[in-house]
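job 3f2a | input accepted
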Amino acid sequence: MITPAGQECRFYYADFHRGRSHQECRLIGKNPDSDPWEPSLCARCPVPAILRANASPYLALEGRVVRRFPFRKRVEVYAVCTRHLIEIEDPYRGCPRCAAERPGVSEILGPPEAE
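job 3f2a | predicted structure (115 res):
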Protein backbone atom coordinates (compact mmCIF):
# COMPACT_ATOMS: atom_id res chain seq x y z
CA MET A 1 0.00 0.00 0.00
CA ILE A 2 1.18 3.55 -0.64
CA THR A 3 2.29 5.37 2.54
CA PRO A 4 1.50 9.03 3.30
CA ALA A 5 5.07 9.77 2.11
CA GLY A 6 4.25 8.28 -1.32
CA GLN A 7 6.32 5.08 -1.04
CA GLU A 8 5.15 1.49 -1.37
CA CYS A 9 5.34 -0.46 1.92
CA ARG A 10 3.78 -3.84 2.66
CA PHE A 11 3.51 -3.05 6.39
CA TYR A 12 1.45 0.14 6.02
CA TYR A 13 -2.35 -0.18 6.13
CA ALA A 14 -5.01 2.48 5.70
CA ASP A 15 -8.79 2.27 5.57
CA PHE A 16 -10.76 5.35 4.52
CA HIS A 17 -13.78 3.48 3.12
CA ARG A 18 -17.19 5.00 3.93
CA GLY A 19 -15.98 7.60 6.38
CA ARG A 20 -13.47 5.47 8.25
CA SER A 21 -10.13 7.00 9.15
CA HIS A 22 -7.79 4.21 10.18
CA GLN A 23 -4.03 4.13 9.52
CA GLU A 24 -1.48 1.74 11.01
CA CYS A 25 1.99 0.35 10.58
CA ARG A 26 1.77 -3.39 11.06
CA LEU A 27 5.52 -3.70 11.58
CA ILE A 28 5.65 -1.29 14.51
CA GLY A 29 2.16 -1.96 15.89
CA LYS A 30 3.16 -5.47 17.04
CA ASN A 31 6.10 -4.22 19.14
CA PRO A 32 5.20 -3.46 22.79
CA ASP A 33 8.58 -1.73 23.37
CA SER A 34 7.85 0.92 20.77
CA ASP A 35 6.53 4.44 21.19
CA PRO A 36 3.20 5.05 19.40
CA TRP A 37 3.35 5.17 15.61
CA GLU A 38 2.26 8.27 13.68
CA PRO A 39 1.71 8.63 9.90
CA SER A 40 4.35 11.40 9.79
CA LEU A 41 7.05 8.81 10.57
CA CYS A 42 6.59 7.28 7.10
CA ALA A 43 8.52 10.19 5.55
CA ARG A 44 11.80 9.13 7.20
CA CYS A 45 11.15 5.39 7.61
CA PRO A 46 13.92 3.14 6.16
CA VAL A 47 11.65 0.09 5.67
CA PRO A 48 10.39 0.86 2.11
CA ALA A 49 13.98 1.37 0.91
CA ILE A 50 15.09 -1.87 2.59
CA LEU A 51 12.24 -3.79 0.93
CA ARG A 52 13.17 -2.34 -2.47
CA ALA A 53 16.87 -3.16 -2.04
CA ASN A 54 16.49 -6.65 -0.57
CA ALA A 55 13.85 -9.03 -1.89
CA SER A 56 15.05 -12.05 0.09
CA PRO A 57 12.22 -14.32 1.26
CA TYR A 58 14.29 -15.04 4.40
CA LEU A 59 14.44 -11.42 5.56
CA ALA A 60 12.49 -10.79 8.77
CA LEU A 61 12.16 -7.20 9.98
CA GLU A 62 11.21 -5.80 13.34
CA GLY A 63 10.70 -2.09 13.85
CA ARG A 64 10.13 0.30 16.68
CA VAL A 65 9.72 4.02 17.20
CA VAL A 66 12.37 5.59 19.40
CA ARG A 67 12.78 9.11 20.67
CA ARG A 68 16.25 10.56 19.94
CA PHE A 69 15.76 14.17 20.91
CA PRO A 70 12.95 15.60 23.05
CA PHE A 71 10.68 16.21 20.04
CA ARG A 72 12.18 13.97 17.36
CA LYS A 73 11.05 10.39 16.76
CA ARG A 74 12.46 7.90 14.27
CA VAL A 75 12.02 4.30 13.20
CA GLU A 76 14.74 1.78 14.06
CA VAL A 77 14.84 -1.52 12.17
CA TYR A 78 16.24 -4.86 13.32
CA ALA A 79 16.75 -7.51 10.63
CA VAL A 80 17.25 -11.29 10.88
CA CYS A 81 17.82 -14.01 8.29
CA THR A 82 15.27 -16.73 9.06
CA ARG A 83 17.20 -19.30 7.03
CA HIS A 84 20.50 -19.02 8.91
CA LEU A 85 19.11 -17.45 12.10
CA ILE A 86 21.66 -14.66 12.24
CA GLU A 87 21.31 -10.92 12.75
CA ILE A 88 21.84 -8.93 9.57
CA GLU A 89 24.18 -5.97 10.03
CA ASP A 90 23.12 -4.18 6.84
CA PRO A 91 19.52 -5.03 5.88
CA TYR A 92 19.94 -3.23 2.55
CA ARG A 93 22.51 -5.85 1.47
CA GLY A 94 20.99 -8.87 3.19
CA CYS A 95 22.45 -12.01 4.68
CA PRO A 96 26.11 -12.66 3.77
CA ARG A 97 25.62 -16.44 3.99
CA CYS A 98 22.66 -16.38 1.60
CA ALA A 99 24.70 -14.25 -0.81
CA ALA A 100 27.62 -16.69 -0.69
CA GLU A 101 25.31 -19.62 -1.50
CA ARG A 102 23.91 -18.04 -4.66
CA PRO A 103 25.33 -19.50 -7.87
CA GLY A 104 27.50 -17.13 -9.85
CA VAL A 105 28.48 -14.89 -6.97
CA SER A 106 32.10 -16.10 -6.97
CA GLU A 107 32.40 -15.19 -10.67
CA ILE A 108 31.19 -11.67 -9.99
CA LEU A 109 32.94 -11.00 -6.68
CA GLY A 110 35.94 -13.25 -7.12
CA PRO A 111 37.11 -16.09 -4.87
CA PRO A 112 36.79 -15.61 -1.12
CA GLU A 113 39.89 -14.13 0.46
CA ALA A 114 41.98 -16.40 2.66
CA GLU A 115 42.62 -15.16 6.15
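job 3f2a | Residues 12-102 form one domain.
job 3f2a | closed
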